[in-house]
Amino acid sequence: xxxxxxxxxxxxxxxxxxxxxxxxxxxxxxxxxxxxxxxxxxxxxxxxxxxxxxxxxxxxxxxxxxxxxxxxxxxxxxxxxxxxxxxxxxxxxxxxxxxxxxxxxxxxxxxxxxxxxxxxxxxxxxxxxxxxxxxxxxxxxxxxxxxxxxxxxxxxxxxxxxxxxxxxxxxxxxxxxxxxxxxxxxxxxxxxxxxxxxxxxxxxxxxxxxxxxxxxxxxxxxxxxxxxxxxxxxxxxxxxxxxxxxxxxxxxxxxxxxxxxxxxxxxxxxxxxxxxxxxxxxxxxxxxxxxxxxxxxxxxxxxxxxxxxxxxxxxxxxxxxxxxxxxxxxxxxxxxxxxxxxxxxxxxxxxxxxxxxxxxxxxxxxxxxxxxxxxxxxxxxxxxxxxxxxxxxxxxxxxxxxxxxxxxxxxxxxxxxxxxxxxxxxxxxxxxxxxxxxxxxxxxxxxxxxxxxxxxxxxxxxxxxxxxxxxxxxxxxxxxxxxxxxxxxxxxxxxx
Length: 496
Description:
The protein is built from 14 helices and 22 strands. It is an alpha/beta fold. The protein has two domains: 270 residues, Aldehyde Dehydrogenase, Chain A, domain 1 (3-Layer(aba) Sandwich), CATH 3.40.605; 182 residues, Aldehyde Dehydrogenase, Chain A, domain 2 (3-Layer(aba) Sandwich), CATH 3.40.309.10. The strands form six sheets. Strands 14-15-16-13-12-18-19 form a seven-stranded mixed β-sheet, sandwiched between helices. A six-stranded mixed β-sheet has the order 9-8-7-10-11-21, sandwiched between helices. A three-stranded antiparallel β-sheet has the order 5-6-22, with no helix packed on it. Keywords: Oxidoreductase.
């Protein structure tokens, strides 16, 4: 079906499409009056406009968050739990509209968007249950008459900088633990996909989140100056950022003057290893899930697919056959499995990686070019064989729908190849050998390992990396720790 018939289903609740920022419980514009346009990546048609906020606007949002923190930190954990639970319920009740907004501004197929809404809402549910469990400890003292305890307290006002590839889940994964801990937040929404975050703000208001506790600022061209204000403003006590490693390094430098608490989830270059003792069919399915989710635009996507020599051709044939059944089109079309990339810059980067591989001797057996008749942001799902380690795709994160298949001989060889990357977010491998499973899982220099599965993300699992993929963990029982400080209290002079 040609994209010219692309149509967006109407929202059931039109008030969820907001074109203002959200500060101190009110919908506001930029003081300058300037706005930026947001476009549907499938059709390139304008969806709407949002305020192009400046440092001055952000300072005001931070001040409101600081004022709100004075009272919000004193709320009970159970009160905060109920607020998050109600927010979760409202997300579930409005799941259809939230999914529509995600597909509209991000481009991912509607089925994927619905899955993201469920995933995103579950972070509010999870942290509603973690809020009453920020336990401290009693520590036996070495001094007679002393008693030592620790308590956890909220860090304060947090700056949260979220990416466009998961417009709902990356907001809730940060906001959930922050509010559960008693913090207040200023969220910098991505310029490409602000409307989902703003819809969440509307639902948060309905859930009873107090004014000033949850604030969203929007901008596009002013992103560098807004990010700098969040990092340098002394009232902000913590920054959580999901994005590229180079930007993470810059933000870390900007935060150094005020020594903020930081949690960074940065770039990935995930290895996906298939050993010759693996179930090839299951490995193919796992590689499909790990590689092509959201058209390859996730930080945990399989980036380097290593196949042991004995099964290389069988795997490549079955993998390509599966990919040939994909249906690429606008996200609202029935049967669409993969949508457009986010913008032309992403398409250009992906094609550059394909041409680099082709020039260095690889074989593009499927895809490798834009798809005629759909629009400039649609790139074909691509499979490349004969990959070598000197190719860009091996050395850098692709963030697109390219599956490069590398051949290897031995376990030692592939572990060394997998660990050559400067980043270490996720890694995957397939094997039936129990000894090998333990060896490789422990040897891979990544923060998350998927064994005989291509999916590792869920609210109960700690999400984060090592090396230049950042530090800190999101989700899980560890996620709330990133938003608290440990305070030690010693009682002295206690008579036995």
